[in-house]
Recover the amino acids of this structure.
DNA sequence: AGTGTGAACTAGAGCGCTTCAGAACGTCCA
DNA sequence: TGGACGTTCTGAAGCGCTCTAGTTCACACT
């Protein structure tokens, strides 16, 4: 039951016969004491089972917690299913982890982002937000706490670092290429415009009030080329299954689109499947383009034409920004990473 | 530059003209003060920009941090690429988050688990370990800190809660079924036996010293039925690509195996591809079985026969265990979740 | 002998919060 | 009228650590 209380710095200090400060130095500033004493302290600590300074107490004293928070738009499994997110997160983790920082994940609630309470309790001294709705309460919660923040794919907030990608331009690029190939009848498969789980055709009103910046930009990029009356199908999540269903719906319209523009590769993979489902062929009968260029895009059947954005780079950069903010750096200008069109075999001229 | 210091409990207390304790109560024990006063406190707090008690200070005072740590065997992107892990993690997150706890991720270093320093600094009051090498230093680091721990798919450690699955039995189940279908020539594709990045055939010595419990059990389950001389190919990670390469290698041997036993679905998907690569058909020429039953198994081509383990359940249960340990509960007996064979179309009788 | 110097170590004041044992003040009932 | 009780609020002792501004001391230099 009442086993011996956990040892603290004091325990060690008095065991060795030195002051608490010295023990602290043994861990944090080896140059402040003689090597011999340090050795003795560490040994004694090990002997009495002291595992080093308590991280919480240390954080309180130093006023930072060596952790960066990451706010997700959706729940964890949904997030992990998203290859693009995983790559971004990994890029972020690699920079952050190299600096001995932990990653505190704040999973979102049905696409709306984390609950404000979650944010309020999270121990992190900088947080990065990824593709939340523009009006997510979590965003306000972070600001209320006065934590520095870096947003990825999000509208600018005052005093916030930001990394972004030219989603609009990328989408235009893809659509223009198709247009150049002679396509005139398009269909667009997009992921969520609102965090309400809607699946189905998109009305103009819904389009006008889109709460995800990324969705909005990609969509507008496509429609800018194809025309505002292009049919758009919304999927609640960026999943292959939903993309398949959406594409199937679009392809059943008359006249049938000759090209499908998808807001993500994942949706595009579903579209590929849908085309096959209907006994048609890609790209002979229908061209399909994706967005992101996840690794699988290269290996799909057929390999996917898609808009490449530097995902890992995005994460890494966000990590660096976060680290810089931690050092008291200023947010600075938003970084805009380049996009490019990767032409593979899922697109062909429309005869 | 020197903007006003961040407000604290005291700031609010003196602004309202009450004691600090009362303000604290306003946040943590509404029943301890009159509704009117509480209202006034909260209003004032909002007015001066106080976002609620500092989580770190609160943690120090209460001696718990409302976070559960999660130790990964590998880096984040590798982890996220693993569908099974994602599901487990999501199950865990859902129970944990429901109780207002955060998830602190500790990414591993090349399959060996997180660095001990990472563990030492992580602010969590219980940690769950997932499929680390049996001798991971991170495990020792957790014990050194005296943190309660729940391990998933890991050998028992004293004083540790545990959830596991009958990997050996499950593997036997799959192998026996194939045996029953008349197969006599097998090949096994497995993921890492050691955290050293090895890809290639497995020697008996290597097999004998396997440092991942899961790998060991599944392998032994297969070999128990097929015989110890069955060729085994090891992949450094559980990826489709590596599985494909491994399967291709096994299928090039003479006599060619008629059935491929894979340690994971991901590897099995690669094997499916490999069979096609060689111009053979599944299951007519070669039967393939996986392990895990991730959602994609149902939709592969052909749908995969695999050993089903309740992944989400595993995560949820681990979360509950973690929460219970937090409440001072005892670890209790390891929970063993059931496995079953899901027969789909990737297996057929050997004529 | 006197002084300057640097290395080695320490005292003590926080960091921002929780919590427990009261104090103060009604209220209610016998 | 008085005491028993409840409610509402306060004082102060921590939680375990870091860090600044020292103090001590040995040694070298003049």
């Amino acid at each position: 039951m009442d086993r011996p209380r956990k040892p603290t710095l004091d325990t060690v200090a008095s065991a060795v016969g030195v002051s608490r400060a010295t023990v602290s130095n043994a861990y944090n500033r080896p140059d402040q004491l003689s090597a011999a004493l340090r050795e003795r302290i560490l040994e004694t600590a090990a002997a009495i089972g002291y595992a080093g300074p308590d991280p919480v107490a240390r954080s309180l004293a130093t006023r930072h917690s060596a952790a960066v928070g990451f706010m997700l738009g959706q729940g964890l499994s949904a997030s992990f299913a998203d290859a693009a997110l995983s790559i971004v997160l990994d890029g972020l983790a690699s920079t952050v982890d190299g600096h001995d920082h932990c990653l505190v994940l704040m999973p979102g609630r049905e696409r709306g982002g984390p609950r404000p309470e979650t944010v309020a309790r999270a121990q992190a001294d900088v947080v990065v937000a990824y593709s939340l709705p523009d009006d997510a309460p979590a965003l306000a919660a972070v600001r209320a706490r006065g934590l520095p923040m870096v947003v990825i794919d999000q509208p600018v907030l005052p005093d916030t670092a930001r990394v972004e990608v030219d989603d609009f331009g990328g989408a235009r690029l893809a659509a223009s290429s198709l247009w150049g190939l002679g396509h005139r009848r398009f269909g667009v498969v997009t992921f969520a415009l609102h965090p309400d789980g809607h699946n189905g055709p998109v009305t103009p009103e819904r389009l006008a009030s889109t709460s995800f910046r990324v969705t909005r930009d990609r969509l507008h990029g496509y429609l800018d080329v194809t025309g505002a009356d292009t049919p758009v199908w919304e999927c609640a999540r960026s999943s292959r299954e939903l993309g398949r269903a959406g594409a199937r719906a679009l392809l059943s319209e008359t006249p049938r689109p000759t090209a499908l523009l998808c807001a993500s590769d994942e949706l595009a993979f579903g579209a590929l499947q849908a085309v096959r489902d209907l006994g048609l062929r890609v790209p002979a009968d229908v061209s399909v383009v994706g967005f992101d260029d996840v690794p699988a895009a290269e290996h799909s059947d057929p390999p996917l034409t898609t808009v490449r954005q530097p995902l890992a780079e995005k994460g890494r950069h966000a990590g660096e920004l976060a680290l810089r903010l931690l050092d008291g750096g200023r947010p600075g200008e938003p970084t805009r990473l380049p996009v490019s069109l990767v032409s593979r075999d899922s697109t062909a001229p429309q005869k």
Observations:
- Chain B has 14 helices and 13 strands.
